[in-house]
User: What shape does this take?
Amino acid sequence: MFHSLHTVALPALEAARSVHLWAKALPYRMASDVVLAADAQSIFSDVKGIMVTWVSIGGALWTVWGVVAIAGALNDQNGPELKQGVWKTIGGIMVIVAAQLFSHVV
Assistant: This one.
């Protein structure tokens, strides 16, 4: 059984090695065709944009969760749960506002 497993594994390992070597050489092959030009300002603005987007999405989800908590508290007529839902909604809105303010930072 070991002999048959070895005969199957050896070609697979050899194929994986050739793919690995080709993948290592790929950036050198592409270097003549692709010019990578990125300065620090464009990288910062791209990262800032991605961060603002995801934080805004998180704030929106937090706001929706607060509204759902408010709806559940109104249905159950539960005062403390209603207060927590209101604070979750306000917190989510504050996260969205903070993310949008951060997007205007230089």
